[in-house]
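Open question from group meeting: does this chain pack into something compact, or does most of it stay loose? Before anyone orders reagents, we agreed to write out a predicted structure and look at it together. Recording both the input and the output here so the notebook holds the full record.
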Amino acid sequence: MSAMEWEGIQNGLKSRQVGTAPGGDGEFWREFRSRAGQIPQVSPPAIPPAISRWAAGSACVIFVCVLAGWSLLGRTGEPALSRFKSVDVKMPHSAVLIMSDKSSQSTVLWVIGSAGDGGK
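Structure tokens returned:
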């Protein structure tokens, strides 16, 4: 910044009657110490170890129960009846088709009748 620019800033501040800077460093630190003395400077109490152990133990028990329940229910994210494990067709037929669509998570079982009944 050139000296000419700085003089313009100084003149602008003087014309607006901007006050002078506050007192020296000593005054600042005296005020700081007096204000700091008004607020208690104590660290918050630490959590007792017994409580933190109890909370960690409870979280572990909850996690194990949720995991056991999830595995016992056999939830794999697939909707019910979306897979065939075995098919036993008791009527005469010429073919059985199983079509699966992963995007819609659907499965279709199609039993094609024999040629003698018109393919029904």
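Observations to bring back to the group:
Residues 49-73 form the longest helix (25 residues).
The two ends are 94 Å apart (CA to CA).
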